[in-house]
Amino acid sequence: MAYIFNLNTMHAPKAKLQYHIGDEFFQSKDYSLVKGGDVDVSITINKVGNAYGVRLHLDGKVFASCDRCADDLDVEVHSDNEVSVRLGTAEQVDEDVVCVDERDGELDLEPLMYDYVILSMPARCVHGEGQCNPDMQAQLDQYLVNTDEDL
Asked: C-alpha distances in angstroms, 116 versus 41, 104, 120?
């Protein structure tokens, strides 16, 4: 599915879009940190002159690997983000603004959605205490250094 919004055809000052991104979306990415998911995305695009404010609201869960035992793990994702977009060339804007070629006006929302899902995940994804794979936990415990006993 293409997640393209043509800014040149936007005549109203506001546009609202709804997407549901699932396993296929995440599995289409090479080397993705996410194996699958079930995320609802609401996007509001506000037009102000030649500039656009793109607000993304994400709510759902994704499936990743536990950083401790490598088993599958459900991770809740929730975020609200806003991106500034302008029509023009890359030389006309600064690094905090997404630049869209004014000839075609196509804003690709897919990388924005993926990036904000990844950024909404915790830096370290692990199961709760005692919920990791017991075989892997036993392997890890063999190499655990307990500084209290070593003293």
From this structure: 10, 25, 6
Amino acid in the structure at residue 145? V
Greatest Cα pair distance, the chain, in angstroms, is: 72
The runs of H, that is alpha helices, within the chain are 23-27, 110-120, 134-142, 147-150
Would you report the helix, strand and coil content of the chain in percent, each value rounded to 5?
A: 25, 40, 35
State mean pLDDT over 128-133: 87
Distance CA 41, CA 140 (A): 38
Q: Grade residue 40 by pLDDT with cuts at 50, 70 and 90.
A: very high
This prediction has a pTM of 0.85
What is d(CA 72, CA 118) in angstroms, rounded to the nearest whole number? 16
Token pair for 118? 């990844």
DSSP-derived letter for residue 56 is E
Average pLDDT over residues 99-109: 91
